[in-house]
Amino acid sequence: MRLGVLTGGGDCPGTNAVLRAITRKAASDLGTTVIGFLDAWDGVLEGRTVALTTDVVRGILPRGGTILGTRRGSPLDYPDGVDRVRQALAEHRIDMLIVIGGNGSLTVASILHDDHCIPIIGVPKTIDNDVMGTEYSFGFNTAVQIATDAIDRLHTTAESHDRIMVVEVMGREAGWIAMHAGLAGGATAIAIPEQPFDIEELARLVARRHDRGRYASVVVLAEGAMPIPGSLDVPTRELDEFGHRVYGDLALHVTPKLAELTGFEARVTQLGYVQRGGTPTSFDRVLSTQYGLAAVAAAIDGASGTMISLSCGEMTRVPLSTARGVLKRVDVSQFAELAPLLG
Ligand code: F6P
User: Fold this and answer.
1) 168, 172, 329: which to mutate for ligand 1, most atoms within 8 A of CB?
2) Is 95 a catalytic residue?
3) What is the pLDDT of residues 13-65, one digit of tens each?
4) pTM value > 0.90
5) Ligand 1 touching residue 39 (CB < 6 A)
6) Which CATH architecture describes the domain 3-139+280-323?
7) Smallest Cα–Cα separation from 118: which of 75, 72, 71?
8) Do 135 and 111 meet the contact criterion of CB atoms below 8 Å apart?
9) What CATH superfamily classification does 142-277 receive?
């Protein structure tokens, strides 16, 4: 049996650890090298590959990014895209393609499998943790740790100056990073895309904390959080070429308003791509390794059309279509339960 693999969507810490596990298990259980397609689907369409041997993956376990490169395009954008995918797999005699990707890549993978009978196994990869069908995707723990470290650092500078620190984290449609990092860092307030926020309520939480004699207020905003309509002017977010909203301005609007409403100085920190770069945490290295081993085991079992899923601490398989066109978002009732911890 021969395996192919590609990494699609935004890069994510732990991806190389998945590639290493896939390569080593394929070498040990199947006695074959794995064909890695470069730059996601582009490599499939353009015939750009690398043979993943145990030598090639040596030393990549702690490395961020992906040695295969990644892009956001899809073969479904081309009239002959599906045929070209079939040709590429035939040319390299690939029996199963492992797609390591987020919502976009897994949706494409599901369409290719379900509608075009292409043999595919999915592995969920996103720092945002918004892939439906798995409890945690690898990369999320690293992003939360980076954001938590930043919040801890912001606390001491906020305290010294009696300032409000507004920190914007990633999460366009789902607030998992904001919620977990905000909780871990003892944030004063957290705003997530799933629940429109009231700027006056944020200001009240800051003022209440100050009244209790605390001088460090850290407000955590997911980049895709939205104010209650009409309560704060936020420019309309444009769509990029892949139909994703482009964010990166929310904190710039929230911060001066909070300063105005509370009378305290306020400063902005936008964490941006540091959340995605660099070495994975030990948790993510282990989780990524488990995902990679489970993907090869599924390939050996011929479990085409499945996605590897973390469920109750175990690696399991769910239909690939579980992740197709949907997002796993924060349950707002669960979010509301955090209220006693804020302020
Ligand atoms: O999907 C992961 C993610 O990091 C989002 O949280 C973020 O908004 C987006 O990717 C940024 O993507 P790009 O690499 O296209 O700028």
Assistant:
1) 172
2) no
3) 999 999 999 999 999 999 999 999 999 999 999 999 999 999 999 999 999 99
4) yes
5) no
6) 3-Layer(aba) Sandwich (3.40)
7) 75
8) no
9) Phosphofructokinase domain (3.40.50.460)
